[in-house]
Specification:
Elements: H1 4-16, H2 21-35, E1 41-48, E2 52-59, E3 67-69, H3 73-80, E4 85-87, E5 105-113, E6 116-125, H4 133-155
Antiparallel strand pairs: 1-2, 1-6, 2-3, 4-5, 5-6
Helix pairs in contact: 1-2, 2-4
Protein name: GAF domain-containing protein
InterPro entries: GAF (IPR003018), GAF-like_dom_sf (IPR029016)
């Protein structure tokens, strides 16, 4: 297992070396996935101007949910309501978009700077209530780091 400080240090190093944006996102997903053995599917969905979330890098089983409209499912609801969502048991959520029959809990943390939402980190677990406060804080730290990356990219005119 690695810790959040190690993930962020690796991302900082890659950024300073001029690593491509997409490669940094892939490294972030890999680092996040390694934070906790309860993380069974980890990915980033980027928000595009047409109000559609598009799947970026991920680790885990393939999903049919490559595009998700704002307001649809847990991921789309998080953007529509402009808040992070921690679902202890997805079987109790009426608009849950099932990626795997094994998924029992889901965590969605927005990658945002102020009111601007760039993307989100989506993590699924096969365990009920897998995302305790410690897990949420760890993922939020990485999301905040990524928000600064998106923000600097947008300032030079390369927003998704």
């Amino acid at each position: 297992m690695i810790n959040t400080d190690e993930v962020i240090a690796d991302l900082d190093k890659r950024r300073k070396l001029g690593t491509a944006f997409e490669d940094i996102l892939q490294a972030a997903v890999h680092g996040l996935h390694e934070l906790d053995e309860r993380f069974h599917w980890t990915g980033i969905y980027e928000l595009f101007p047409d109000n559609v979330l598009r799947l970026g890098p991920f680790i885990g089983a393939p999903t049919d949910h490559v595009f998700i409209g704002v307001g649809r499912g847990v991921c789309g609801t998080a953007v529509a309501e402009r808040r992070n969502i921690n679902v202890p048991d997805v079987r109790l959520v009426s608009n849950y978009l099932a990626c795997s029959t094994e998924t029992r809990s889901e965590l969605v943390i927005l990658i945002r700077r102020g009111e601007k939402i760039y993307a989100q980190i989506d993590i699924d677990s096969h365990q009920v209530a897998a995302f305790d406060e410690g897990a949420v804080v760890q993922v939020q730290r990485v999301a905040d780091w990524l928000a600064s990356l998106y923000d600097s990219r947008e300032r030079i005119g390369r927003a998704p």
